[in-house]
Predict the 3D structure of the following.
Amino acid sequence: MISKLYMLLSLLFLVTIISCSVKEEKETSINAFEIWNDTIVKQKYEDGSIKTVWGYRSDDTIMHYQWSYYKNGELWLEGPSDGNLRHGKWKAYNESGILVAQGTYKMGKATGIKTVWYDNTTKFYEGEMKDNKRVGVWKFFDKNGELNKEIDYSKNDTIIH
């Protein structure tokens, strides 16, 4: 009986010590509301600005769309989902709101044309993805839009230009 009491007190003491040594972290607030029979869930930064918004259909609990924002309020990332998996065309923006990347996903895997731009809106590179892997010929450009090189990922990553 005394050994059980000793173990219980020791455990309680240990939990108290550990909980006191953990730094306090501020949680971001999350709230949900319904609009047009869909459920919208918002996560906010500590300052109250919107961090992420998820859209769910009212008839299920599967996420169908996501918008993520920089702290300055500019859209960072957007795209449709099937549950927690990206599914459809996703877009990424820089902190000034300029489109810098676009690609298509199928059940969480990059599939289709992927394009990435420099901040000056000049194309950086473009190519095809299949099951999260580069396939075919990819083109890479310099900041002036001049073709820098081409790589054929179907032929052992052969540089063809």
